[in-house]
Amino acid sequence: MRNLAKSLNISETELLVWLADQAPAADIRHPADFLPPETVERAQQALARPPPPAPAPEPVERRCAECARLPAKAGLRMVEAGADAVCDMCGSSANKRAALTMIGAFHARGLRRLLVVGGGPGTAEDLRQLLAGEVDIRIVDGEGHRNATKADADLRWADVVAVWSSTILSHKVSKLYTDQRAAFRDKLVTVPRRGVAALCMAVTEKVGSGPV
Predict the structure, then answer these.
(1) Residues 204, 212: contact at Cβ < 8 Å?
(2) Separation CA 170–CA 51 (nearest Å)
(3) 111-140, pLDDT tens digit by residue?
């Protein structure tokens, strides 16, 4: 009796009362019949207590096919997002998805600093938001004033230099960076297409293709 009560996580008195309530009618008296009325009442109240709460469900993260290739977060089970579901990781945004892939490539290679030469104010702000806290970024205004000394400092600072040729980028600005291609060849990548996703994908390919 003691072992059964312990396995059910109830007292022996509660077990006796429960057995008395559930036992079929019989001519002989049940052991619970000999319990004091107040003891029986307390046991019946205890038996009526609500069941313990169910364990919390395992947290899951729904990911699209592209984000499923990225490492899973600790404590989360990754599941495939349905065709109509929004990806929990990238929000089903091509820009964010490409940025996350680029961040993963930077981290895998131990890189941190990205220099972007060109691009408009809108794309610059998008890049800063998408890479915040993960990749340090400098953006050179394609129509701004730059001299050889500043350009040289930028090139030495950066791990990767993306020259965004398809955006508003004057030749006199881009030339400051591409003229030093021989010295910084391993860092330089030309991005021939517009859009944040295109830039991130070009940089990711550069990082994964060889020494940086």
Answers:
(1) no
(2) 72
(3) 999 999 998 888 899 999 999 999 999 999
